[in-house]
Design brief:
This protein is an all-alpha fold and 215 residues long. The protein contains six helices and no strands. The chain binds protoporphyrin IX containing FE (HEM). The site of protoporphyrin IX containing FE has 18 residues, from helix 1, helix 2, helix 5 and helix 6.
Length: 215
């Protein structure tokens, strides 16, 4: 597979990721800041939000897969990685997809938990690579991998904020929304958005490192 095609795909996924994140955050803000709208409509939008949220999950996996394939092509990683990574990426996307589709069942919760453990393991592996597990890697790429581990961490923290949001949201569905609960979900939105900004600061730094390769 040509290096140029992989590089173009790697850059295109960056746009896909940013676009998805902007839409998700905008819809999330709308849901949490419009208590004047009928709760059933906000509830339906929340369900839709979770569907759209899948796109950033795909983007993260695609970016890691394509990045590792590029790195293998440039001999920064062993050659076997070039073919192994698409298999790993496809399996991870399948896990994320089934966890999403089964999200209302105990199996879905279990799969989401497994996905979180996969993220911890990958963040750890990326940190090991950042601290020199592969001496073939230039420093700019190792820093990039360290930033990717931080980015995965930010994603997991956002997931925990969303869990709090859904806990309060379930109470709102059962007992009705009140000013106190509306305040909690708005505060949760603000906190999650702060972490999202930190995540995008990592992405911006990764882009600059990849383009300028200063070290
Ligand atoms: C959020 C995640 C990432 C973003 C936003 C990102 C962004 C970019 C961009 C914009 C380029 C193009 C630079 C250019 O040629 O002008 C690039 C190249 C590259 N990226 Fe990534 N990347 C990410 C993750 C990764 C990961 C996880 C790896 C490795 C496992 C990786 C490895 C590479 C490699 C090897 C190149 C090619 C550099 C070269 O041509 O010498 N990237 N990346």
């Amino acid at each position: 597979m040509s290096y140029t095609i992989l590089l173009v795909a790697h850059i295109a996924v960056l746009g896909y990721w940013l676009g998805s994140d902007l839409c998700i955050n905008s819809e999330y803000r709308f849901i949490t800041h419009r208590p004047d709208i009928d709760f059933a409509a906000r509830d339906a939008m929340t369900d839709h939000l979770m569907d759209v949220d899948q796109h950033v999950r795909y983007a993260l996996i695609l970016q890691l897969t394509l990045g590792a394939m590029l790195a293998s092509h440039l001999a920064y990683l062993p050659p076997q990685w070039f073919w192994a990574m698409p298999v790993v990426g496809a399996a991870w996307i399948a896990l994320v997809e089934v966890a999403h589709r089964q999200r209302r069942s105990a199996t879905g919760e279990r799969l989401a938990q497994i996905d979180r453990w996969v993220r911890y393991a990958i963040a750890l592996a990326l940190l090991l690579a950042a601290f020199g597990a592969f001496d073939t890697m230039p420093l700019w790429l190792r820093i990039k991998l360290g930033l990717f581990a931080a980015l995965i961490g930010c994603g997991v923290i956002i997931r925990f904020f969303l869990m709090r949001h859904f806990r309060i949201w379930a109470e709102m569905r059962e007992q009705g929304p009140g000013p106190e609960r509306e305040t909690i979900i708005r505060t949760t939105y603000r906190q999650a958005t702060m972490v999202l900004l930190a995540l995008w600061t990592c992405v911006a730094a990764m882009v600059l490192l990849a383009i300028f390769k200063p070290i």
